[in-house]
Amino acid sequence: MDRTLNASVVIPASYDDHDEPLPVIYLLHGAGGNHTSWVEEIQEEGLVQRLADAYQIIFVLPDGDPLSFYIDSYRVQETAN
Predict the structure, then answer these.
(1) What is the pLDDT of residue 75?
(2) 30 three-state secondary structure
(3) In the prediction, which pLDDT does 5 show?
(4) DSSP letter assigned to residue 18
């Protein structure tokens, strides 16, 4: 993509104690959401952080714009400019 978009990253509390790389899971928000949706709008508060800590996983939550559906479309780029 030829644009800069926001992302949130959730790491385990013990991240600095690891010498080996940790697995990464990308959580994509739905239409109308943004990179904070999985952290701020999920019913069980703190769930993503607890999962990161319990399973030693890094979560990346990219912002795909509210209606882009994660497609690098020229139409999306036209409306962003």
Answers:
(1) 60
(2) coil
(3) 80
(4) -
Q: At 53, is the secondary structure helix, strand, or coil?
A: helix
Q: Provide the 3-class DSSP secondary structure of residue 60.
A: strand
Q: Are 78 and 33 in contact (CB under 8 A)?
A: no
Residue 64 neighbours by CB distance under 10 Å: 21
pLDDT tens track for 45-68:
899 999 999 999 999 998 887 766
Cα 73 from chain centroid (whole Å):
20
Give pTM, 2 decimals: 0.77
Q: Cα 38 vs. chain centroid, distance in angstroms?
A: 7
DSSP state of 63: -
- State the Cα–Cα distance between residues 53 and 70, nearest whole angstrom: 28
Structural contact between residues 64 and 70, judged by C-beta atoms closer than 8 angstroms = yes
Strands 7-10 and 58-62, how do they pair?
Answer: antiparallel
